[in-house]
Design goal:
InterPro entries: AosR (IPR018561). Pfam families: DUF2017. The protein has one domain. The chain has 5 helices and 3 strands, in the order αββααβαα. The chain has a 3-stranded antiparallel sheet with strand order 1-2-3. Helix 2 runs antiparallel to helix 3, helix 2 packs across helix 4 and helix 4 packs antiparallel against helix 5.
């Protein structure tokens, strides 16, 4: 067997589903450093969310704009009312999700995840990725310039995109 075929055979994705006794569960196959990195990024996102919630005009608010897109593009008054009514609930929902995922990545993390855990992980990874993409001025359909790929921020964006892709695949 060739070395390439042997490497393909041994590769385990960062997250994958398995069925045992009729129950589907997911295994997170990330090292301690990767889990710590994700937990740190989620902590930073949590801090951004809660600081922007304290002051909607704070400088971090533009970084969160893609997480909370406007509901009423053509009506500022309706948009302001929507934000007044919904923003706190939306932020709270994200924070609860971030806290749950951070707990999943901790030292006492469960060996297997259920579908709800995987969906929370997927949404949290995507939220960090969206904020980082906003910071890097990367749109959802933008191609990354190969010259930019060497920066740590772009590598992190690539890692999050890769992990998000595998997470979505695991749910299929």
């Amino acid at each position: 067997m060739s070395d390439e075929a042997d490497m393909v055979r041994r590769f385990k994705p960062p997250i994958y589903a398995e069925t045992k006794h009729g129950d589907r569960r997911w295994c997170l196959n990330l090292g301690d450093e990767e889990q710590a990195l994700i937990a740190r990024m989620l902590s930073e996102l949590r801090a951004l969310l809660t600081s922007a919630d304290d002051d909607p005009d704070a400088p971090v608010a533009p970084m969160l704009q893609r997480l909370f897109p406007p509901a009423f593009l053509d009506d500022e008054e309706k948009e302001a009312e929507y934000q007044r009514l919904m923003r706190e609930e939306l932020v709270t929902s994200r924070v609860v999700q971030i806290d749950a995922v951070t707990e999943m990545l901790g030292p006492d993390a469960p060996k297997h995840l259920d579908e709800g855990n995987v969906i929370a992980l997927m949404q949290s990874i995507n939220a960090v990725r969206v904020v980082l993409g906003t910071l890097l001025d990367i749109g959802e359909d933008d191609e990354i310039d190969p010259g930019d790929e060497a920066t740590p921020e772009h590598q992190l964006y690539g890692f999050l995109s890769w992990l998000l892709d595998w997470t979505v695949k695991s749910l299929g």
